[in-house]
């Protein structure tokens, strides 16, 4: 109970009415608030800019706020009706531009419904139905009629066109129709080697000159050919199980190595050694610097070895066999480090990606028809695609991240795939029998295919390599300026 004596207000009150009843009666009107505060404390009214530090006395129900600093509480004063109306109109116009002309349309207040109507566009779509170029006379404040989320004015890049017909066709009489042989290879010096019956022929692409390299005689036949990476020497696998090495320039035999019991159907060079696969289920490692026929024997397949490829870093050797197995070998071990058994037919088609380390592609025969992609680091299958036909060969492009596959039963087609989407770039037809042989030109643009129809067909499949201007380092530590002596 406040015991402080109050001053007389100086008002003549009617009989039966005191000062307290006057306050209660004036609560219903906004103007009476000033009268009450004036009656309670006449000295409380002061300048708003410099309020008194002494708290003023106010009513017990409605406090006096004349001395309060409202801006310190972050209270925003009510804006003018004209400004708020402008903000609402701008917001509605912006919504109309962003989401469509009917988005956010309010129903009339007389209708008794004040909610937003449903938008006329699917909010989960990331493209608009914009058709036609933007007009400079567009009524839109944003410069176009379809909203700022329209597609970029840059047209999409058209798909690369691959010629559907070969630009050259050569006759190849006596080219065998045998799935397990590898009779065509293209050297880094632009010379094509082809095994025809008992002979190996060399075709020089620059002048179309044909040279007979060797003739094995009537009791033998050519089963495989493979150039060294430098393109100066070529190895020849024979039906009797021999491996011969020839000088491709002088057409002179350099070495003959044995070790296999029957035909040698596949060969693979790395930078130092030669691997050969045979029908005897064995893989032999040959080193021309050593006098012995072979330096190691890899045993793991249960049937004929028909696919053999070294990785680009020479660390791993992939082999495929007629036992439906794909094996990966380490150069320091005679046991396979990976056994991949997902294929359900013979694995002849094998190719290592030049764009990604440890990426291996393999293709299965007639009962499988699939191209499978592997991560040889952990042995996981990354992806696969059913081609619909027997997969005979695979080769990665050197210039782009694509690969080409050749097929046998039942469509005998050539297919170009984009990786990793595995979308088809092109499908080429022309051979009447299985496309059993495949080789790529040194520039990576042209492939040559061979089939049992005794023809070699040349196709322009891949684009040229993008040339990049080398950056010359002329700094102090540049290797270009370093001299050993």
UniProtKB/TrEMBL annotation:
Give the PROSITE patterns listed for this entry. WD_REPEATS_1, WD_REPEATS_2, WD_REPEATS_REGION
Q: Where are the WD repeats?
A: 298-330, 428-469
Stretches of Polar residues bias are at 110-121
Endpoints of the signal sequence: none
Q: Which UniProt keywords apply?
A: Cell cycle, Cell division, Mitosis, Repeat, WD repeat
Presence of the UniProt keyword RNA-binding in the record: no
The entry's family comment says:
Belongs to the WD repeat CDC20/Fizzy family.
What is the protein's given name? B-type cell cycle switch protein ccs52B
Organism source for this protein?
Populus alba (White poplar)
Q: What is the lineage of its organism?
A: Eukaryota, Viridiplantae, Streptophyta, Embryophyta, Tracheophyta
């Amino acid at each position: 109970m406040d015991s402080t004596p109050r001053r007389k207000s100086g008002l003549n009150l009617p009989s039966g009415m005191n000062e307290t009843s006057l306050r209660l009666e004036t609560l219903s009107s906004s103007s009476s608030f000033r009268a009450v505060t004036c009656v309670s404390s006449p000295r409380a009214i002061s300048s708003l800019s410099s309020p008194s530090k002494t708290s003023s006395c106010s009513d017990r129900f409605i406090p006096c706020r004349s001395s309060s600093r409202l801006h310190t509480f972050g209270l925003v004063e009510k804006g003018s009706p004209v400004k708020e109306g402008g903000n609402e109109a701008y917001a509605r116009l912006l919504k109309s531009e962003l989401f469509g002309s009917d988005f956010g349309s309010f129903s009339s207040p007389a209708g008794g419904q004040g909610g937003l109507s449903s938008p006329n566009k699917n909010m989960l779509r990331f493209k608009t139905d914009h058709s036609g170029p933007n007009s400079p006379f567009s009524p839109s404040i944003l410069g176009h009629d379809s909203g700022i989320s329209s597609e970029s004015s840059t047209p999409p890049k058209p798909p690369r066109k691959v010629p559907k017909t070969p630009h050259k066709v050569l006759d190849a009489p006596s080219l065998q129709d045998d799935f397990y042989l590898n009779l065509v290879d293209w050297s880094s010096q632009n010379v094509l080697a082809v095994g025809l019956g008992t002979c190996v022929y060399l075709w020089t692409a620059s002048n179309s000159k044909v040279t007979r390299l060797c003739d094995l005689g009537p009791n033998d036949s050519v089963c495989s050919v493979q150039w060294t990476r430098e393109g100066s020497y070529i190895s020849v696998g024979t039906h009797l199980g021999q491996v011969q090495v020839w000088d491709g320039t002088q057409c002179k035999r350099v070495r003959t190595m044995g070790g296999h019991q029957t035909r040698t159907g596949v060969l693979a060079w790395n930078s130092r050694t030669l691997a050969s696969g045979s029908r005897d289920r064995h893989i032999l490692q040959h080193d021309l610097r050593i006098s012995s026929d072979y330096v190691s024997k890899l045993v793991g397949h249960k049937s004929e070895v028909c696919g053999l490829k070294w990785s680009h870093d020479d660390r791993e050797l992939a082999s495929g066999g007629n036992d439906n197995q794909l094996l990966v070998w380490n150069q320091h071990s005679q046991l396979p480090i990976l056994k991949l058994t997902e294929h359900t037919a013979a694995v002849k088609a094998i190719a290592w990606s030049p764009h990604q380390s440890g990426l291996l592609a393999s293709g299965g025969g007639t009962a499988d028809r699939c191209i499978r992609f592997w991560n040889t680091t952990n042995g996981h299958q990354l992806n696969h695609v059913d081609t619909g036909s027997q997969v005979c060969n695979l080769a990665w492009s050197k210039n782009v991240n694509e690969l080409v596959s050749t097929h046998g039963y039942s469509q005998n087609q050539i297919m170009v795939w984009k990786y990793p989407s595995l979308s088809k770039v092109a499908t080429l037809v022309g051979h009447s029998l299985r496309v059993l042989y495949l080789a790529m030109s040194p520039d990576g643009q042209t492939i040559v295919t061979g089939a049992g129809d005794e023809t070699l067909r040349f196709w322009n499949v891949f684009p040229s390599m993008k040339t990049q201007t080398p950056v010359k380092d002329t700094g102090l530590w540049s290797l270009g300026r370093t001299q050993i002596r």
